[in-house]
Amino acid sequence: MPVSTRNLQPSKVPSSRIGRLFHYGGLAASLGYGAASEILRRTGGGSEGQTSPVMLTEANVKRLVSKLSQMRGAALKLGQFMSIQDTHVLPPEIDKIFRRVQDSAHYMPDWQMEQVMTNSLGPSWSDLFTTFDRIPFAAASIGQVHTATLAPGISPTGREEPVAVKVQFPNIANSIDSDLGYIKLLLTAGKLLPKGLFLDKTVQVMKDELADECDYVREASFLKAFRSPEFLGNDPRYKVPWVWEGSTSTVLVMEKVNGVSVGEADASNLSKRDRDDISAWIIELCLKELFEFRTMQTDPNWTNFLWNAETRQIELVDFGATRAYSKEFMDSWLSLLQAAASGDRDACVDWSLKLGYLTGEETKIMLDAHVNSMTLLAIPFKSETPQPFSFGQGSQWAEITAEIRAQIPVMLQNRLTPPPRETYSLNRKLSGSFLLASRLGASIDTKAIWDKVVGKYRLG
Fold it and tell me: Which of 63, 75, 435, 454 has a CB 3.0–4.6 Å from the CB of 68, allowing a cystine?
């Protein structure tokens, strides 16, 4: 998720494995010193009653946020990955770290950006642009984004065109394995995470997803796919930017769009129609990605969705986290959701076994919590649910999310196997879409959207 540079500062991205190990080693040492100081403070100051972990003092939280923001890559991505979830599964001290990291990032100093551009596009790369803003307007976990103007001689329109240039941090792709290993050690050292999170599986999924996101050629291929008539090319509600053909695996040049992030847009200044349309179109897009394209952009961060009030379009700008799903998986996952929506408990358990949510050895407490959470998730799409369905404070959706959250501690305590790997990204996008609708206080005919998209899907 890009972060505006008005909150950032330039700092060199540690690019060698030894350099990154040095930074993580220094972080571990400073955290240990902070924890030791806290033990002495509590022992000498009569604070034995405090229950918060000594490793996670306010000073240590600041150390963690500062270092993870500087390291970028896997560190920052894991923070964003964890903080976008509205599930309350993390201890509050860990959640606080990840949420602060989500709001932080640094950008490369000019000399390091110049190095990446030269290695990727050649020493005369600046000749490709008639203007190039050397200070990025956004930074994220694996790269930063600059405003530029593509020269007419290479522009797809034959004219000067405003573009966004995404520049990857150096050697980020090669640092994924080691970085996640260091972070895993830091997270498990204090035994702070519940065992039901299955950190090993989460880290493995993160590693695979990050490796894909570091390939900008792959991302460009999905931009082109989503622009095609087979996907969104003929749907006037969505705009997907064109990609410059000279883009590489570490520098991606695309059409610059003019919308405002749906997360930054002041909801109070949006009309009821705008808030409802934005929410409905993003939820419909999710369902189309699953049941029409079987290809989903799975990063739900609001900065990936821009609202252009003039054109009344949702502009889609980041396809690095795009995943494809097999027909077999989608058939099974839809069958599970349909079983949950119809209240068929036995079918819900059977499809959960087939998908790998359950092993067959679970206790009744775990089965009840799992089936209940799936049934609650399906409520917006049930035929008997009154429409339009309301999101936001005091709505039925607020009650549903509260009930789902109540099931989470039970599942974390009793879960015997991690969820299917496909569902990590799928659930992240769906929950992010519902979160947006809640933030905007939207009212949507969710059943009509479901029937419109899923009604055309054929099992088998």
Answer: 75
